[in-house]
Every structure is written in C-alpha cells, then in structure tokens.
Amino acid sequence: MIQLDDLNFSYGGRTVLRNISAAFSPGKLYAVLGPNGSGKTTLIRLLSRLLQPDSGSLTLDGKSYACYGRKEFARQLALLPQTRPIPAISVQDLVSHGRFPYLGLSRTPGKDDLDAVERAMAAVNVQAFAGRDLRQLSGGERQRVYLALLLAQDTRYVLLDEPTTYLDASAQFSVMENLKCMSQDGKCVIAVLHDLNLALSFADEICLLDQGRIAAFGAPEALVEQGVLDRVFSIRCRSVVVDGIKEYIIRPDGT
Ligand code: ADP
User: Fold this and answer.
1) What is the distance between the alpha carbons of residues 211 and 35, in angstroms, rounded to a whole number?
2) 17-61: per-residue pLDDT in tens?
C-alpha cells in the first residue's frame, strides 16, 4: 500500500498541495481527478519520488520512500509521465527498457527478462509490431507499447499521467481496459484522467483534488451521490442504468 500522511508541497514558496492524506492499495484502479491546476501532476510526481514534499510522509508497503534504493524503488513502482519522448527505437527494444531495474552489472537480459518482455507485449497485444519503429505507430498503438513497457517493469504500483489524452474513443477504451486488467491482476494502478466519464466508468476509487486539497476520495457512485463532482467542476452529474449497465450523464451546471 502507498500511504500519504499530511503531505504539503510548494513550488518556490507557493503551496500547491496541502494536508494530503490518502492510501492506495494493490488490486484497485484509482483515478486522480480535478480541475486544471488543482495539483494532479504534482501529486503523481510526489508519488513517484520525482519531487520531495516540504512536510509529511510517504510510505510504500510500510517503508518510508527515503529508505528505498533507486533500483529497488523502480522494481516497486513504474511511472508513465504526461510527456513522453518518441525515440527512433523498435517496439521490442523500448519494452525491454522496462527490465533495466532487474539487470546486473553486465546489463545482459536473462531468460526471465526476455520472457517478461514477451508477456508484457502479449498482454496489450503489440507483438504484431514488435519489430516496428515506435515513430511509425498510431497514437493508440504507441500508447499500448508504453503500457507494455510498464508491464515489463513488473511493478506492483503503476502510475500514469493522462494516459488517454489525444487518443480516439476506441483507443481510450482500450487503454482503460488494459489498466483495469492490470488492477484485477493485483496491481495498484493510479491514473490522472481528464475524461470524467472514463474515470467514473472504470475506476474503483476516485481521488478528487480541488485547489491543492483532497475534496473527496471514494467510489465513483458515492462521489456522484454526494454532489462533490458537481461542486468542484461546476457540472451536473447523474447516474442512470441503461440495459442493466450504469452510465453517467454529465451536463453543464444550471441545465
Ligand atoms: P494539474 O495537474 O492538476 O493541472 P499541476 O500539478 O500541474 O496541476 O499544477 C498545480 C499548480 O502548480 C498549478 O498552479 C501550476 O501552475 C503550478 N506548477 C506546476 N508545475 C510548476 C513548476 N514547475 N513551477 C512552478 N509552479 C508549478
């Protein structure tokens, strides 16, 4: 479990996260939501140890973040950041980078590493373009390759900053379905999302940020019932059941 206790963070004296306490458990898909500038990316960067809090504590499986070595931490937690390079590299070679935290001094991948890369590519269905250059793929295909990279790293904690942005609807669903599978396989998946419908439909729990504070943390339906999404986003969000499936209707405030 990742546990945050009373975290505060500021950029150059300007506090952007305040009194953040929360816990993220394996086996669940969490969506981090909030208006622009509410602190989502900053939170993800703190969770992935790219930033250090001004005060408060972060623990992973009961051990303070500060007590993890670099490779040890990378075997526990993987991050897909918001901006990603698109280097001239084959799909297979990129996915193989996920094994770096496991390689010894010789940097030579063993059978376990090669198997992990194969499994990761199969899980998100990218074996068919294993030999292709990353730059030749569509946005949706490339995003699946980055998910394979995360899977090859074989961590229990997987963090993603806006993994569905710029993808078409079908590719967005494909990414969300892959994230759901990862969580059902026992991983703790934490994704910053912009699309409320995707978050409400797929997430087990939502961490809702507003002006640097946690405005709500809980199951999608509970947040909808509390009306807290309505307040934070100035919208009207209701759930309806269509053909036995719960769906969400989101309208502008006042309609
Ligand atoms: P979100 O991901 O919710 O849009 P961010 O975490 O990116 O929010 O930003 C939270 C606040 O911190 C914003 O007001 C933003 O302008 C500010 N901020 C983000 N990154 C930096 C930075 N590197 N230096 C100074 N301020 C920053």
Assistant:
1) 8
2) 999 999 999 999 999 999 999 999 999 999 999 999 999 999 999
Distance between Cα 37 and ligand 1 center (Å): 6
CB 249 within 8 A of CB 197: no
Q: Which tokens hold the place of 202?
A: 């797929």
* CA distance from start to end of the chain: 41
Give this prediction's pTM.
0.94
**39 close to ligand 1 (CB < 6 Angstrom):** yes
Domain ranges of the chain: 87-154
**Contact assessment for residue 38 and residue 17, using Cβ atoms and an 8 Å cutoff:** no
The contacts of residue 244 (CB under 8 Å, 6+ apart) are none
Token couple for 138: 């569509």
Token pair in block for residue 28: 């669940």
Is the CB of residue 51 below 6 angstroms from any atom belonging to ligand 1?
Answer: no
CA distance 237 to 250: 4
